[in-house]
Amino acid sequence: MKRTKTKRLQVLIILVVFLGLGNFTVQAQEALTLAKALSIAETGSPDLQQSLLSLTRSQKNLEAQRAALKSRFSLDVNPVAYSNQRRFDNRVSEWYTNENFETSTMFRVEQPILLTDGTISLTNQFGWSSNNSSSTDIQSEVFFNNLYLSLNQPLFTYNRLKVQLKQLELNLENANINYAMQRLNLERNVTEFFYNVYMAQMNLTIAKEELENTQKSYDIIVNKVEAGLAAKEEQYQAELNLATSKSSLQNSEVTFENAKDQLKLYLGMDLFEDILILADIAANPVSVDLDMAIENGLRSRMELRQREIDIENSQFDLIETKSLNEFSGDMSLRFGYTGDNDKFNMIYENPTKSPSVSLSFSIPIFDWGERKARVAAAEASIESQELNLTQEKKQIIVDIRQVYRNIQNQVNQIEIAKQNERNAQLTYEINLERYENGDLTGMDLNLFQTQLSEQKIAYRQALINYKIELLNLKIQSLYNFETGEEIIPGELYLNDKK
Are residues 147 and 266 in the same domain? Predict the structure, then answer.
């Protein structure tokens, strides 16, 4: 009696421990819906992070260029400059030794001029100098200060500052577009990965059901063989069917685990975290207006703006190419005051004006046709980009039409798959009864079991295909026909909330 109670207590303890481990496993498994997967991907997807880094790089480059257009302040300090040199004086034809000691600082303010691509600067150099020459045996010690305003202005050429700024603005716009497109592609990729896991999960469930049915069939035929109501070879066939079902279940488990790893990798999740897919694949037919889809796609698709940006960048390349071997000039103006004195407070007692004007020209004479050929190549590049824009518009129309046809076809495929699954289920049940009555072989029953599994999978795949095609139409037309809302490209750009 005591042994019975002890055994019961041990069984109870083992059962409690097993249930506890089971609860821990359930808690460690995260239920994942499509909406939650998309939310995780928004922050964890490596592809989106790469796009975000590219956007950040373009944004910071533009910020740097805009900061470079503001006044730049600099201070150069030369605390010690000493020299002792032997020199020759051509005026008196004799050698002398010159010793010089100097310390100075230079403060400079430079302001680029965006309107003209010139630069205006204000410079002040202050210092102290001690100079001793053996030719005069006189040591000179003075304070000096040079204050001057200068202007450097390119002539007869294009405004490089404006072009560079505009190119960086276009690069930022293009990066924003790439980020927005990546978010749309992210939704499509996550959806496809998610439903791949769902289908693998459903295949696993169907494989388990198939194994259960095969096990029942095997038990039936074993009983018949033992009772002498069926031939021994029927049991061999049932054993083969059972082994095949077990193998299919194992393959489904492997496929399911691999699909989960791929999804977690794309979402940026912990690879050791187990997930369970919760999906609603019920598909309600959605009314789609093809003309509206095409019109909205041609008006809103971001790829068209990218092609326009490519054309603008090609035009800038043409401008830069035309500046090769061009007639150009450079003007430099400078006006300032220079003062020096051995007393600090009397530096500008007798100041000296120091104006200067410089004008230079670069005149090409003959370049063997280099500039003409490069300009022609740049013009051909512009024509190529314009052709790409035209082809992109045509491709958008073709893609939307194709998705529209696929949607219409998938509606029919869903009804066909649904009816096929219903027929396969009824056929299997009828033939299972025939098998139990001995009117059907195990090999034939296995064919009906396989047919039922295939039709179950085909029906769910048709539902998923319909949902994916609706998503493709949303991406192609930038219009959500399920909610009746237009997708504004600007809303997909990175903003302060992201």
Answer: no
